[in-house]
Design brief:
The protein is an alpha+beta fold. Helices cover 30% and strands 20% of the residues. The mean pLDDT is 96.
């Protein structure tokens, strides 16, 4: 941490009021951005994908669980991985337990991973999570929403992630996708976000952004080098 600028209370108050003006401007812009996000056009989803959950096969249409809006967290967990991604686990620690609140606003929140149901079950139990988490190992859902990549795609050096072509070392990446079901039962894709767009869902990072040291990641080999699964600190 750099040496703080020590001032008297009046000087501090003046600077805090100046910062408050900027924060209010940012909040208004964020509200406008949220509205624009909510007004994105929809694309009809042609396939009612079949996933696997604890009770057997389940269709995308059934994951809404009686709600008209579905938020999917694309949880990085490849078929050959021993455990789920520690970064996605960091995010999951933040949204675990929110199901009831979101349901009250007509939203179902689930996680989907391209790994076996046995892997999901074991890791979910280890982490103590309660949210719905299903396997997409038997379908193309992850590939269609650009969070999983074949070896051939990665070898080409230009996979599509976060709406641009890029090189990719991993076969899995994180993301969030939003779906809507209308009164006739048709399903639509309204929104997806990747990379830093996921920050909105991470309460811990938003709290760290308020303290003097912030996320304190500038001197690390990569941004989340400090991170561990919550049962290994």
């Amino acid at each position: 941490m750099t040496s703080p600028n020590i001032v008297d209370r009046d000087t501090w108050l003046k600077q805090r009021q100046e910062l408050l003006a900027r924060e209010k401007e940012f909040t208004r812009e964020r509200d406008a951005l949220s509205q624009a996000r909510q007004q994105m056009p929809w694309v009809e989803v042609a396939e009612d994908y079949v996933f696997e959950n604890e009770d057997g096969p389940i269709h995308l249409s059934e994951l809404f669980d009686g709600k008209s809006q579905l938020v999917v967290y694309h949880f990085m967990y490849g078929p050959e991985w021993e455990v789920g991604c520690k970064s996605c686990s960091f995010w999951a620690d933040g949204y675990n337990g929110l199901d009831t609140h979101l349901a009250a606003r007509d939203v179902s929140l689930i996680a989907i991973s391209r790994t076996s149901l046995d892997n999901i079950r074991a890791f979910k139990e280890r982490m103590g999570w309660t949210f719905t988490w299903v396997s997409s190992l038997g379908n193309n859902f992850n590939f269609d929403y650009q969070v999983s990549f074949t070896e051939k795609e990665r070898e080409s050096g230009a996979v599509t992630y976060n709406y641009r072509e890029t090189s990719m070392g991993s076969d899995e990446m994180p993301g969030v996708s939003v779906f809507v079901k209308d009164e006739d039962g048709k399903i639509y894709h309204s929104y997806s976000t990747y990379s830093r767009g996921l920050d909105l869902m991470n309460a811990a990072y938003n709290i760290l952004d308020m303290v003097p040291k912030g996320r304190d990641e500038a001197d690390l080999p990569y941004s989340m080098a400090w991170l561990q699964l919550h049962d290994t600190y």
